[in-house]
Amino acid sequence: MIKKTIFAVLGIIILLMYSCVGWTQEEDSLEVIAEGQYFTIYGYPGMDINGLLTKLNYNYFLQLDTLLDGQSQDLRSILARTADALYSEASDILGIHVYSFHGNLKFYPDQAALNDVFKSYFHEDFPQCAFYLHERATLYISVPDVTLGMLSHEIAHAIISHYFVIPPPARVQEILCGYIEYSLRKSTGTLP
């Protein structure tokens, strides 16, 4: 009798934990596809990693020495190194370095799936293609809509939010993140 009660209580606790943190079926369907210094990267089954890397202009971030030092050159490791390089570049532009940061980067198949995740947390629709959730140290991105500027913008939110004891107001963050986005687009030649 006591064992059944304990299992029932544990079941209720687990159910409450998932409902409190906004667990969704969409998040559950993601799998870890790469692990870098700053991010654990999640993707959906069948995600086109090569297409994603092309959208992120990954050649800009890869240094010749990393290509020649014998490191694995599979697409997943290139994605991890690209995300780490983008994090480092954004940190350098801001002049803010949080070397201990490690968060999640979650890629979704479209904006509708991203909207479902956002809605599970905040109970409202989300018409954008990316967001950062400080409490979970997680960036959420729609793959068809991703750009280098968008990803750098969201990474800047992660850096800013983890550097300051109290994260700056949203408007201040948006100005700084916009500056990162502009600077990277300018340096990579992707400004219109």
Can you put this structure into words, describing what you see?
The protein is α/β, with parallel strands linked by helices and about 190 residues long. The chain has a single domain, classed as 3-Layer(aba) Sandwich (Glutaredoxin). It contains eight helices and five strands; from the N terminus they run H-H-E-E-H-H-H-E-H-E-E-H-H. A five-stranded mixed sheet has the order 1-2-3-5-4, with helices on both faces. Strand 1 and strand 2 form a beta hairpin. Helix 5 packs across helix 7, helix 5 crosses helix 8 and helix 7 packs across helix 8. The termini are far apart. About 10% of the residues have low confidence.
Would you summarize the structure shown here?
This protein is α/β, with parallel strands linked by helices. The chain contains 8 helices and 5 strands.
Feature tags:
8 helices, single chain, five-stranded mixed sheet, globular, 13% strand
| Share of residues in strands | 5-15%
Structural class: alpha/beta
Choose one word for the global shape. globular
Order of helices and strands: HHEEHHHEHEEHH
Question: Main sheet?
Answer: 5 strands, mixed
Strand order of the largest sheet: 1-2-3-5-4
CATH topology, by name, is Glutaredoxin
Q: Flag low-confidence runs.
A: 5-24
CATH class: Alpha Beta
List the helices and strands and how they pair.
Elements: H1 2-21, H2 25-28, E1 31-35, E2 39-43, H3 49-55, H4 64-68, H5 75-94, E3 103-108, H6 111-122, E4 130-133, E5 138-142, H7 148-163, H8 170-187
Parallel strand pairs: 2-3, 3-5
Antiparallel strand pairs: 1-2, 4-5
